[in-house]
Fold this protein.
Amino acid sequence: MATRFALMIAPAAADDTRTDFAETFARVDPSAPALSVRELSTQRGDGIFESIGVVNGHAQEVDAHLERLAHSARLCDLPAPHLAQWRQAIALASADCEPGESVIKLILSRGIEHGPTPTAWVTAATAPDNSAARERGVRVVTLDRGIDSRAAERAPWLLLGAKTLSYAGNMAAIREAKRRGADDALFVSTDGVVLEAPTASVLLRFGDAFVTPAPGAGILHGTTQVSAFSWLESEGREAVYRTVRTDELARADAAWLLSSVRLAAPVIELDGAPLAHDAELTASLNAYLLSPRD
Ligand code: PLP
């Protein structure tokens, strides 16, 4: 994934009344050093991020991503992002994207040790080719998340439900899934509740009903899943949030992993058992997800 664009941002306070933030942006060479060695995002993973899918220069679901950035900032006690400023940075990044699929990342870090402000930056890169996952599907194994489904409520300092930069555990889970002969993982709680994948939401079909685990059990509320629900509903399908127990997985009729850049990847095998793949439905859902969405 070649990063072609990087923009450092001097974060504005949420009540800043400026309408043009050009002077707060500094475009930098994406291959040159740009961060202080005292940066807390690199030292401790102390910060938050968003990955936005871009199709032919159109950044998808910008408002939903900005709302989630603000939500993550609240959970992490970071200053509220100035949404108009971030929107302008995203516009500059998307203007730099080539035709085809790209990914824009927004990063808001705690800043440097004892520093006055957070550090913020935006990058844009060509997206990897996800056609194999979308068309041929992914094999998934369930992995224990090591926490119960009430942990988010009981221990908010775990920052479950915030999109923090601390993804080392998520990446370790994907490596473990690969060691077990799969492509991706599906986290389950110690009390038997289905959560999410390390970098995606899960969508399941039971009969005619499309189901996703309710956000709140410490999972991220996926922007792609919200979009998929609106598409399913517009197609006259039933889409519901509910708690899904791990023992229900064996009777799921189909499943997908949903995320902003890979989009809908059908699950063709779950814990070694084959799952039916409705290739036509997946193709229509991905065509919708690739169409311009605001
Ligand atoms: N859950 C986790 C843990 C994620 O990291 C992601 C995306 O990166 C998602 C869910 C899906 O979110 P979105 O659809 O907004 O990309």
Residues 51, 196, 198-201, 220, 222-225, 258-260 surround pyridoxal-5'-phosphate (CB under 6 Å). The longest strand covers residues 47-55. The chain has a mean pLDDT of 97. The helical segments are 40-44, 62-75, 83-95, 131-136, 151-154, 168-179, 223-234, 279-290.
